[in-house]
Amino acid sequence: MNIHPLFFGINSHKHLGEYTVLTSIWRKRRSVIITWLFSYVAILLLPIVMGIFVYRESSAALEEEIHRANDALLKQVREVIDNELESVLRLNTEVTWNTKLQELMFTNIRGQDSYQYSLYQIAMDFKMYKTFYPQITDFYVYYSPDDIGLMPGFVRSGKEVYEDVHNNPDFSYNDWQTMMTSSKKPSFVPLVYRGLNGSIHQSIAHISYLTSDLNTKPEGAVVILIDDSKLLSALQNVQLFSGGEVLVLNKENQILLSTLETNQHPVLTNRVLSDDSGFFNEKYKGQDSEFYYIASKKSDLKIVTIMPSAVVWQKAIYVRWFTYMSIVLSILGGSLLTFFFLRKNYNPIKQLIHSFAGESTVRLNEGNNEFQFIQHMISNTLNEKEEVNFRLKQQNYLLRSNFMTRLLKGRLDNQIPIEDALPAFEMHFDSDHFAVLLFYVEANDQFYSSINGNSENEKTKLLQFIIANVVEEIMNAKHIGYMTEIDDMLACIINFRDTGQASNLTELRQMASEAQQFLKNKFQIELTVSISNIHTSIVDLSIAYKESIDAMEYKLIMGRKEIISFHEIQNEAINEIPQGYYYPLQVEQQLINFLKIGEYDRAKETLDNIVDRNLKINQISLPLARCLMFDLVSTMVKAHHEIGDTQEESSGASLKEIEKLTACETMQDMHEQLTEMLKEVCSNNLAKRKSTLIQNRHQDLQTLIQNIVRFIQENYQDPDMNISMIGLRFDMKSTYLSKLFREQTGEGLLDYMNKVRIVKAKELIESQNITMNEISSLVGFSDVNALIRIFKKYEGVTPGKYKDSM
To answer: Where does the HTH araC/xylS-type domain start and stop, copy by copy (predicted)?
Structure first.
């Protein structure tokens, strides 16, 4: 496929301009231009998203500030209203608690000669109150039993009070009387007020009711009137937003005071919530408005302010439009810059594509962009080179490994001399002194767990690669070493440089130890190493290999993770003094008996003695060591059988433990496994014995507690019965006995004795008509005061009150 349609303004098509670019992008939708375009757009979107975020945060902060300002304004209005109504509440308190009015309400002076004079005195007191509270429009007290009204300086009938203060066609005398006696809770209500000149005024009335009995209807009411024009004039000093208005509602959401026409807003009484404060939005006078409300601190009133939304949110609207304009400008400017840099940055890519396209048969297609095409071309070249080198190394490594295996096992092809084969496999030797080291991997679980995502085969190859490289590097520091895999182990052929045989063996052991420690510390790979004797011919490598195999078998006795030298084993075999095999029948029976009784320490001591006597003192041979392993396995089988654990789950677990023993490769492993088994078996048997003892002790304690309870039930009448007496009765210390009783029952012994006596005392109180002195002696108290004190402690009342309640 020809790639030139991708490029901007090629040859005679330059006059097509932007149309050519858009057409190329669409036809090459996988082009790097699209990738760059998305990148530039992402960069462009970042400040836009940040701007939106900043706008949201600033809007939230501004909204919070606006609400805080409105709340402060509402609190200012509330302060004005509360200050104006504080005198009403204070006057109501003084009138209600007037001693003469209280005497009228709560004493029977009606019909007495002093009755009329008392009414006159109350009216005179009210006249004095009127002088002290000039801001109060008017007030009176209505007393319904005699249908009279007490006004400042006057005593009138109820009808006269109504006509002087409230006479109005919309509010009849019967309505007025019903209001004066129909409720008990004080409240603010809207009420019509008739002035001295006969003019009608709207006023706010505070009504509190008078009653001489909580269970009867009110006998009258205290009515205090304040003209709403006074409150409105006080509100003029509060600076509201432009067009802001105020409502004052009572607890029934009736409008008491308003700076607007209340009949325009019937919905207000439904929308103001029962909360102490809040706000909501609603249409008012054809425009959106904000309604804020708050409860009065000194009364049950609620103040509402109404403000146009356009005024409240003027700053927020400005911030919103400013953000919108900045986003639009960012998009326009970013788009122009994106188009400019796309054209500028694509020219070098275009020239590079032309260069590759002319040198290769591979062409840019719909599935690749320009960078992928260039990367593909470079990768193909590098991969071809790497593949050739890898194949050469792989073939050489496999051929050399096969050659070394045949060399160690003595199966070389006699047609090709060894000296001629070595250079072909990139091997060379400096001397005729050779030795073989075998490496057996004992623990690789930690190494495998540290590698994720590879198969077991790949992990094994990696492990062998690491061991081979570490060993070769250490050996090649002073000698020549080559590693190969052979029979689940790794073998290393060592060629010594001109040194003596004895020193070579010592140095070889040190180097093997160094490799072993490094692999353990660095990679958690643990090895057992065996070393052959030193031989003076390359042909004798097969003998050296067999010697290292024989030495490796001795890990059964010497244990894992050791360095075993065939030379040392050979010397020990020559100097070995035959010793007896130690595992008598009585020792075996002792070991079984210790297991049965759970004596772990003595069982372990016996096992350690058997192993030490055979491996360290007697130093038995390899065949006898195998016999000892089988004998110890047999002992564990006998022990499990004699313990008699017949449960299916336990039997299965025992069988698995025996299988672990038979799978041990060294005496050290078997010794460790046997020790763990001894510990588990002894722990289980010991736990069973302890469980039996605990059950027996618990049963004994239950029997003791039952006997104590029975003793108390039978001897509660004895005044000498106490904790010390009970302790002597059961031959135990009183403190210890009380502690046992609390632990078993959750209740103190003294509390239980007192409760038994109180229960018996209640039965006597309920069933017999006898004195408290007699009851106290019958239930075991030394005197009646003790009975009263303890009875009240547990029942909350004295015996006398309890008897009265019965």
So the answer is: 706-805
- The DSSP code for 266 is T
Torsion of CA 568, 570, 572, 577, to 10 degrees: 180
Q: Answer whether 232's CB lies under 8 Å from 84's CB.
A: no
- pLDDT tens for 414-450 read 667 777 778 877 888 888 888 999 998 876 778 888 8
CA angle 155/160/161 to nearest 5° reads 70
Q: Which of 193, 179, 290 minimizes the C-alpha distance to 245? A: 290
Alpha-carbon gap, residue 222 to 332, rounded angstroms: 74
pLDDT surpasses 80 at 179: yes
The pairing of strands 434-443 and 287-295 is unpaired
Q: What average pLDDT does this structure show over 5-20?
A: 42
What tens digit of pLDDT does each residue of 293-316 get? 888 888 888 888 887 777 777 667
Q: Where does 618-666 have alpha helices with state H? A: 622-643, 648-662
What pairing do the DSSP bridges indicate for beta strands 526-531 and 563-565? parallel
Q: Exposed/middle/buried for 223, CB within 10 Å: 0-12, 13-18, 19+?
A: buried
**Taking Cα atoms as reference points, which of 612, 467, 457, 450 lies closest to residue 529?**
467
Minimal CA–CA distance to 739: which of 701, 711, 707? 701
Q: How confident is the model at residue 289 (pLDDT cuts 50, 70, 90)?
A: confident
Find the range with the poorest average confidence among 17-21, 127-131, 405-409: 17-21
Q: In which element (H, E) is residue 374 found? A: helix 370-408
DSSP state letters, 288-317: EEEEEEEE-SSSS-EEEEEEEHHHHTHHHH
Separation between Cα atoms, residue 191 and residue 166, nearest integer Å: 8
Helix, strand and coil content of the chain, in percent to the nearest 5, comes to 60, 15, 25
Question: Tokens at residue 619, please?
Answer: 């130093």
| Helix extents (H) in 97-237 | 99-106, 115-132, 158-165, 173-181, 228-235
Contact 194, 170 (CB under 8 A): no
pLDDT digits (tens, 9 = 90+) for 588-611: 777 777 777 777 788 788 877 877
